[in-house]
Amino acid sequence: MRASSALQCPNKLTTIPRGRGGGERAFSVTRTRISFPRQLFLFRVKCAAEFGVDGVHSVRTVPLTVLTAEKEEAKAILNLFLKKQGLSNAVATRTINKSEHFVDHLVSKLHLIHKTYYLVGRELTTLEIRDALIPYLESLLEEHGEILVDVVENFPDPPGKERSIILPVPADPTLSAKKLKAMSRVSEIGSNGQLPPHILYLIEIGMDIDQIKGMTRKFPAFAYYSLEGKIKPVVEFLRDLGIPLSDIPTILNKRPQLCGISLTENLIPTMTYLESFGIDKRSWAKVIHRFPALLTYSRQKLKATVDYLHELGLSATSVGEHTLNALLILGRKSKVLTRCPHIISYSVDDKLRPTAEYFRSLGVDVAVLFHRSPQTFGLSIEANLKPVTQFFLERGYNIEEIGIMVSRYGALYTFSLTENLIPKWDFFLTMDYPRSELVKFPQYFGYSLEERIKPRYSLVKESGVKLLLNQVLSVSDSEFEKVLEKKVKKMLNTQMLVNADYSNNLPSDLEE
């Protein structure tokens, strides 16, 4: 059932002219009238309508803990969706706090879409919740546009009858014209019958005109950069770092703003600052190719993240057994930046610190995890981390065991539940291993189910021997064959000795 609304035609827009003070122009817009059936968010009524008169699957059949968790998931997804539309975190949070009925409505949508799951007592994963709600939210955005926030806050009632709001005119109404002018400039033929010099140069180093237009669409100022003053010096600067000429178009396409940054005042000092923490100059090519935005961040932003890496390492020194790990982080934080330069883009207070606290709650040495798997800190706590933790809790593992698993294999939380963890867990249940084997070797989830796990385990089963899960998966093909052959020979030799011993102990009359 789609949450459609009955729309009445809005009144004509009225322009309010500028006042003498030169105040901002604005439009007075009469609010569109929207009516929602109240039963859309009344979960119990909806269940009765969808599942039968008796309400076979009513709200009372769903555990309160499940409903509470689903509401939190719905809030998290709504929050992310609103922020993607340009709302700040504070405004998105405030909107959600005023939208209890709409959140209830989202939960009812889940139970409608996945009603068969609830009938058999199956709970939804975070990914399933997201995949159900995001398309629905997108359809509401398409239908209601800029009044979506009011629709959410006032659900199921109309946002407000005949209420006028002031919509400011965009700060620069000629922005589109500027983009078009900039895009036409890059393909403009001069009096000499040639394209502009900087465009010819970019084509010479491997870019095509469509790429250049795309860059200009994203960043119109690029069309006005001079060849000798901005573009060529930056290209030569990147080449001096060891970046192949073939990689330059990709870097500029990702971050055309690089050409507008001063070499002497920004780029070179930024690199000098990062090199002071041990980043090998030979690593720059790989780092910048993967994440050219690194060079556009302010010194303050870089320092905040690097200081937090210090903080992670220093906090570990308070625990004697972790002192070595702390020194490892402080001595090798450059490897973190080299392997995962996107770390710099994450907010310390909104992303890195909360994620670190979450892993500490699992008993994980955060400093070591940061060093081994920095990409884990880019994951969402609500959408990625908590669902994986819940997955293992539901399968009988305790928090301490989960902490050991992620400590041993930091990438564990980066895997998809539906595409990785669930199918591999289901196959693990068919293997002759105790549940504790995954605590010892969580790397199991990092191997291909079809190309590695199933074929090798099939050979182990056929041979009749027993190998540790680590021995089955972590060695090369040739090493695996050697280990398997050695185990088979040992098993056969043992059987021969047992048979010989048995024959020697038989009574003489049985031997004849």
Description of the structure:
The chain starts with 5 loop residues before the first strand and ends with a helix. It is 59% helix and 3% strand. The model is unreliable at 1-60, 160-175 and 314-334 (pLDDT under 50). Helix 2 crosses helix 6 (126-144). A 3-stranded antiparallel β-sheet has the order 2-3-5, with no helix packed on it. It has helices at 43-51, 64-84, 89-97, 100-113, 115-119, 126-144, 148-154, 175-186, 197-204, 209-218, 227-240, 248-254, 263-275, 284-290, 299-316, 323-339, 348-360, 366-372, 381-394, 399-408, 417-428, 436-440, 449-463, 469-473, 477-504, 508-511, and strands at residues 6-7, 14-16, 26-30, 34-35, 164-168. The chain is mainly alpha-helical and 512 residues long. The protein is globular, with a radius of gyration of 31 Å. The protein contains 26 helices and 5 strands. The protein has 3 domains: 6-168, no CATH class; 175-296, Alpha Horseshoe (Transcription termination factor 3, mitochondrial), CATH 1.25.70.10; 300-414, no CATH class.
